[in-house]
Amino acid sequence: MNLENKIALVTGANGGLGTAIVKELLEKGIGKIYCGVKSLEKGKDLEQLSDKISIVDLDLSNNIILENNLSNLENIDLLINNAGVNSGKRVFDEENSDFAINVQGTLKVTQQLSNKINPNGTIVNITSILALCNLPIMGLYCASKSALHSLTQAMRAEMSSKSIQVLEVLPGPIDTKMTPDDSMPKTSPQNIAIEIIKAIETNQEEVYPDDFSKSIKEGLEKDPKGIEKQFAQSVGAR
Q1: How many CA atoms are closer than 13 Å to the CA of 66, on its beta-carbon side?
Q2: Model pLDDT for residues 86-108, shown as the tens digit of each residue
Q3: Residue 51 CB neighbours (<10 A)
Q4: Under DSSP, is residue 37 helix (H, G, I), strand (E, B) or coil?
Q5: pLDDT of 70-80, one tens digit each?
Q6: Are residues 129 and 171 in contact, defined by beta-carbon separation less than 8 angstroms?
Q7: Domain extents in the chain
Q8: What pTM, to 2 d.p., does this model score?
């Protein structure tokens, strides 16, 4: 996709990765960006970046807000489902935010906009390399990203008849508030955003945008049980 003069919507646009994506889109000459934020107050800094930016209240946990605010948007060429949470909870903890936002919220946005994406448009779902193998110390987050990985495959099949590309981004840890653990190797949001934009421009279906995700992907191809056992050790380390 040539991004010049296209119309995009980015969810979670005020976060570290979301803001980096918005900036990269502006660099590529995007025509307009709807920046989805959890509350309009969180979008004030984004408005200063360009007059091409329009802030949209998109709380992914509130279906009524999503339905009302998405119904008012014009057609778009690019949907980037970036909004997400990481509760950091394990599978026996009482917590539902990971699935409510990462799965149900993302699905709701995409369902609402599926008929508003122009032919030859693109949907981008940002999952995680942990969608492919669970890291138990954040087991609910990983499971939610696995569910989104599966939904992405279904979306790709559904949208192919409309000539709409579906790209999945499977990053490793990114240096944002979602991954505060300083012991983990983290990639800057800017570098991840650059790789996402490259993948959109070259019509890729899947991208592993950093060294960590590439190494885990390689490990899963060679020795999936070895990676699972390696990740399982995280439980004993806490």
Answers
A1: 17
A2: 999 999 999 999 999 999 999 99
A3: 8
A4: strand
A5: 999 999 999 99
A6: yes
A7: 7-236
A8: 0.94
